[in-house]
Specification:
This protein has a 4-stranded mixed sheet. The model has no long low-confidence stretch (mean pLDDT 90). A hairpin with a 2-residue loop joins strand 3 and strand 4. The chain is elongated, with a radius of gyration of 16 Å. The chain has one domain: Hypothetical protein apc22750. Chain B (Translation Initiation Factor IF3), CATH 3.30.110. Helix content is 24%, strand content 43%. It is an alpha+beta fold and 99 residues long.
Length: 99
């Protein structure tokens, strides 16, 4: 599956537009240290967000495959805090067939 943030795939022609695809997940931070009180990286939160991105993109790809696409153009990520310590991650784009 080709995934690009642009509206075209370099060197490929869009033969068919399948439509919107998306993947959504809500992840909760695991118990543990949340980061230094004096500043710095919040490692456990970073790990949670990294996992959420991978899951959301994976679900978006599965949606595109179900629609018969071989590429996703205009891919974007959106995140929001649902409750303290939990975040929603949404990956979305347009499923297309490229040749």
């Amino acid at each position: 599956m080709i995934i690009v943030t642009t509206e075209t795939v370099p060197g490929k022609a869009i033969a068919e537009v399948k439509g919107l695809v998306r993947g959504i997940t809500v992840q909760e931070k695991q118990t543990g240290t949340f980061g230094s009180l004096l500043g710095g990286e919040m490692d456990s939160y970073n790990e949670m967000l990294d996992a959420a991105v991978k899951i959301a993109i994976g679900r978006m790809v599965e949606d595109a495959k179900r629609q018969g696409a071989n590429a996703i153009i205009g891919m974007q990520l959106m995140s929001s805090t649902i409750v303290h310590g939990a975040a929603e991650m949404v990956a979305y784009g347009t499923a297309v067939v490229v040749k």
